[in-house]
Amino acid sequence: MAACHAIPMTNPCLSCGACCAAFRVSFHWVEAPATLQMRLIERVDARHLCMAGTNAASPRCAALEGAVGGPTRCSAYDARPPACREVQPGDEKCRRARARHGLAPLDAAS
């Protein structure tokens, strides 16, 4: 029988979403995943794109579903850009995003 590689149901990101509503998520146009929907991308300059909604004083990614601090999900999870993949539960960006939204910090992922 093959091993099951399911995503743990205790993933803290599914009850947070703070990083999706704290930073501009920008990336070079060549890093744009081919399957990322165009409605979720905005042009920053001639070479850079960002996730729609994140290039604002109060950023909130258009792919974020749910309220920050509550049940959330990314509607573009499988096609998210490298900048999104870099943030890990409990790392420095996570801590800064959670603090911005008044959420307690998480322990760094091991």
SSE blueprint:
Layout: E1 26-28, E2 41-43, E3 48-51, E4 64-66, E5 72-74, H1 82-86, H2 92-100
Antiparallel strand pairs: 1-3, 2-3, 4-5
Helix content: 10-25%
SS-derived structural category: alpha+beta
Distance between the termini: 28 Å
Enumerate the strands of the largest sheet in spatial order, edge to edge or round the barrel.
1-3-2
Structure description:
- The protein is an alpha+beta fold and 110 residues long.
- The protein contains two helices and five strands.
- Helices cover 13% and strands 15% of the residues.
- The strands form two sheets. Strands 1-3-2 form a three-stranded antiparallel β-sheet, with no helix packed on it. It has a two-stranded antiparallel ribbon with strand order 4-5.
Descriptive key words:
110 residues, single chain, two-stranded antiparallel sheet, 15% strand, globular, 3-stranded antiparallel sheet, disordered N terminus, alpha+beta, 2 helices
Entry summary:
With 110 residues, this protein is of the alpha+beta class. Helix content is 13%, strand content 15%.
